[in-house]
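Quick one: Sigma-54 dependent transcriptional regulator from Vreelandella alkaliphila, structure tokens please.
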Amino acid sequence: MPRILIIEDEAIIRSALKRLLERHSYTVSEAGSAEEARELTPSEFDLVISDLRLPGDPGTALIEAAAPAPVLIMTSYASMRSAVDALKQGAVDYVAKPFDHTELLETVERILHKQSMQQGTPPDITDEGGGRQTMIGNCTAMQQVYTRIRKTAPADVTVLIQGESGTGKELVARAIHQQSKRAKAPLICVNCAAIPETLIESELFGHEKGAFTGASAARTGLVEAADGGTLFLDEIGELPLDAQARLLRVLQEGEIRKIGSVETRHVDVRLIAATHRDLRALSKSGEFRLDLYYRLNVMQIELPPLRDREEDVLKIADILLDKACKRHDRQGLRLSRASRQDLRDYPWPGNVRELENALERGVILAEGHLIHPDDLGLGPVTNRPHSSAGNSSALANESSAPSGDDDDLSLEDYFQHFVLEHQDQMSETELAQKLGISRKNLWERRQRLGIPRKKTARRPN
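--- reply ---
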């Protein structure tokens, strides 16, 4: 429940506003001045609503103290100048007194919604081996995914994750499970496309001894194994119709019946499903049950493809490259400027999985200390237009690259390649002489390009 702090020196207005907000399920605190508000630690609230004219400091004086909480300014002096001044100082918006109740509530709801979307932080995930990892990406689409995970996880409802292959649907499922009330119970992951159609009902729901040829012993199904926890069905669009009917009964009645058994068993399972296919379209063609689709689609999370996460590509690439270098004992490998540009321009039909494979290939094939485009083995790359903001953040600390294939022969690439190839055999003075620059210039370029100076081993006394 969002917490709101009201700062208003007129008690009647303050009380009326408090009652209005509390009727709409907000938790409200109040103060009569900026000084009183500071004692309540305004930064811990979700929203601060303050009158502009207060005894002592004005309402705008709280904008910095309240950060990161947004400040909505109220004023009886609704001139353009006072509104503009408040916005310039960092107020999120302003309302004029006397304010319309409906308009005020809509403004509050809009601000809080926008704030929640911006507060999406990547969840920490524990993998099957017990290692910790964090979902990577700060683009708007991924922040919305993080927010949806945070809100959905405790709700214990069925979740449908949609996205192309390789976008990280299982990571999202793990994040939801580990932030849910079932976190200490098992998470059972099943790839429906990887199990033969003749065996999938047995795998999911179990069977009794002798239920079919080859059933030499009774078997517990994966749905029952997930009792009390979470069942993640990846590629649920590949589930046969008979298995869909059985799964629908699990969702509707919370019951399973093993193949060959006449007895039913109650199970308490949270279902998370994922698919890259359009289940609604499949239901129209008769390939997927429409009633099951409606049962699955309680809460939906849409994962963006990598080509739509332009500002995240290089960040993901750097982390995956570091892991690949450790696996193959090739520490110190770096991507050339041309390679980095190709990574940004490539459309990535295979998404993060394809990016990981390309970097693995580059680590194995690179002969020097730089990974060049040929080492990555990508298909033809068509340059895409980039916003200036995206370029400046993603290609930080790199000078503008010339277009075309000559990018591999840029001065920055040559400098990186030469230093990394020869720094083990040459001193800093010798490197500078060979490059035709001063030692100071060599040091400055090392700092700018992030090339650490090799530590020389101490000679024994």
